[in-house]
Design brief:
348 residues; alpha/beta; 5-stranded mixed β-sheet; 16 helices; 10 strands; globular
């Protein structure tokens, strides 16, 4: 029979053991809670306007704000949208037109921010095309039907008073802008709408520029941050952390002192030489919005173009697709202006 001393000692040992287990369990939970959650971010094109995503990853800005991000290149916005809907991707970096089509199909997505809301595409053509009228019966190379490059082409056709059906204009889905340059060079297509870095590549290969990006004034929703509506309801902290990381990377990229780093990143991801990286840098500076608000007018313009292909898009309430609460929170709090001040950049 155990003595009272042994019983007390046994109880004390049990209490100490239980306390150690509980402390260890609590410490494990604390570590798990503090560990950054990995967010898979899909993007569907290689342009200079993607550089805030690449820089935020390389410079550790996502980690700074408490999340881990895995950028994944997806060929085509429809595939990216499918990944968001299936949950295999958590955040999308794509155009407003893709989101309109997705919402029209019944998906619940929100455009949280837009990093460019202006046309940045030059109209590049084969050397035998001298005038806008020569585009009749010709083929345009694009990334996807309904995508941002497709909208760029449609805006150019409108600018020149041309119509896809009336003028027998065809579209060929061939891939991103680097592939489009090859397409027009080889004659598989006659015209493309691309950013300046690819315009220069095409010109060096004998192609002509029929229209420069500055001629088009229409607002659009280009490269945007898109998330499932559930994320804003259940994990707004993750969405905010991601947006903070991209905004800091955007400001970082615009600071003159960081230009060598930005050029290196552009050269690496776009696979261009030093001259091409300089052109891409100009595309970035002239193409990105300093405060990446999603502009309703731009989304409505995209809706106007897209509903000719997909009438259901015309039924979508464009104002319901944009959710600017996080942008407004960061802007009103002074977060964005303080970043610009810290990097010595004018936010205008």
């Amino acid at each position: 029979m155990k003595s009272s001393k042994q019983i007390v000692l046994g109880k004390l040992t049990l209490v100490i053991f239980t306390s150690i287990v509980m402390l260890a369990f609590s410490a494990h939970n604390a570590r798990a809670a503090a560990a950054p959650a990995k967010q898979v971010v899909g993007y569907a094109t290689f342009t200079a306007r993607i550089v805030p995503l690449w820089l935020a990853q390389e410079q550790g800005f996502f980690t700074k704000y408490g999340i881990e991000v895995e950028p994944v290149f997806i060929r085509g916005a429809p595939t990216l949208v499918a990944g968001l809907a299936a949950g295999s991707m958590h955040i999308g970096r794509t155009g407003g037109s893709a989101m309109l089509a997705a919402v029209a199909a019944g998906h619940e997505f929100k455009v949280v921010a837009a990093f460019n809301t202006r046309n940045t595409y030059d109209l590049v053509v084969r050397p035998n095309i001298k005038r806008a009228e020569d585009l009749r019966g010709k083929t345009f190379g694009i990334t996807s039907i309904g995508g941002t490059s497709w909208m760029g082409v449609i805006l150019w056709l409108e600018h020149f008073g041309l119509d896809e059906k009336r003028d027998s204009i065809r579209f060929q889905v061939i891939g991103d802008q680097s592939v489009q340059v090859q397409c027009v060079e080889t004659g598989l297509c006659d015209a493309i709408a691309v950013d300046g870095v690819y315009t220069k590549q095409a010109k060096n290969r004998g192609m002509s520029v029929l229209g420069e990006y500055t001629q088009l004034k229409s607002l659009l929703i280009g490269q945007s941050m898109v998330v499932p509506s559930a994320m804003l309801q259940q994990r707004p902290d993750v969405a905010e952390a991601y947006l903070k990381g991209e905004i800091e990377a955007l400001v970082f990229s615009l600071a003159p002192r960081n230009k060598p780093v930005v050029l290196k990143t552009l050269s690496k991801w776009l696979k261009v030489d030093a001259s091409g990286a300089e052109d891409a840098y100009l595309d970035l500076v002239r193409g990105v919005d300093r405060k990446p608000y999603a502009v309703l007018e731009g989304l409505r313009n995209a809706q106007r173009l897209l509903k000719t292909r997909n009438p259901k898009v015309g039924e979508v309430k464009a104002e319901d697709v944009i959710d600017s609460r996080l942008m407004k929170k960061l802007d009103d709090s002074g977060f964005i202006d303080k970043l610009y001040a810290s990097y010595g950049v004018n936010p205008k």
